[in-house]
Amino acid sequence: MKTNQTISEKAADILLEIEAVKLNVKEPFTWASGIRSPIYCDNRRILSFPEARAFVRDSLAKIIQQVYPDVECIAGVATGAIAHGVLVAEKLNLPFVYVRSTSKEHGLGNQIEGVIPEGKKVVVVEDLVSTGQSSLAAVDALINVKADFKGMVAIFTYGLDKARQNMEDAKCPLHTLTDYNTLIQQAVNAGYLHHSNLETLEKWRENPQGWER
């Protein structure tokens, strides 16, 4: 880590270096939700880079140890956070489960895969948070089986107002390694992005649906 560099800045640098985050103001990406965005984040790429993978694992584990010292189980959100969740659970020597977006339509019809006894204190691991809806659906599934949900950690958040409101409404504490504002600033500092694009990127974050109008 560079001298005086924060964990958030280091995490942002890693995402940029391994191209887990791509920025393109002129040719925006289209998310699965239909939102057009000048930024796209794919944290699955972290798994292919051992040093980045270890940094993310250790940093998420450290947050959990500091904020949720009584945690008894780690839950990953399918599919992007399954591997990251397993790594964190292994680091902390804790049980692991993962939560599907919906229940299976065959077999036992599980939505939660693995064993989580009623009342177990659980922390959810996410790879990224966009609107927060899929993340909170996983939280609801855990609460429905009477797990004691404590909070959520994630690698990255776009920092959208909708996500903040959704998390607040659901009373879901969220701690992330890095965020949109930090990443954009690091991208400018490292020359991945020209500062003249900052206004467009901020306009997108404030209004993801109408920023191109």
Task: Write a brief structural summary.
The protein is of the alpha/beta class. It has helices at 7-17, 50-67, 82-92, 133-144, 161-169, 180-189, 198-206; strands at residues 21-23, 29-30, 36-37, 39-41, 73-77, 96-99, 112-113, 121-129, 148-157, 174-179. It has one domain (7-206): Rossmann fold.
Produce the secondary structure layout.
Blueprint: H1 7-17, E1 21-23, E2 29-30, E3 36-37, E4 39-41, H2 50-67, E5 73-77, H3 82-92, E6 96-99, E7 112-113, E8 121-129, H4 133-144, E9 148-157, H5 161-169, E10 174-179, H6 180-189, H7 198-206
Parallel strand pairs: 5-6, 5-8, 8-9, 9-10
Antiparallel strand pairs: 1-4, 2-3, 6-7
Helix pairs in contact: 1-2, 1-6, 2-3
CATH architecture: 3-Layer(aba) Sandwich
Structural class: alpha/beta
| Main β-sheet, spatial strand arrangement | 7-6-5-8-9-10
Q: Could you tell me the number of beta strands?
A: 10
Portion of residues in beta strands equals 15-25%
How would you portray this structure in words?
There is one protein chain. With 213 residues, this protein is of the alpha/beta class. It has a single domain, classed as Rossmann fold. 38% of the residues lie in helices and 22% in strands. A 6-stranded mixed β-sheet has the order 7-6-5-8-9-10, with helices on both faces. Strands 1-4 form a two-stranded antiparallel sheet. A two-stranded antiparallel sheet has the order 2-3. α2 packs across α3. The N and C termini lie far apart (40 Å).
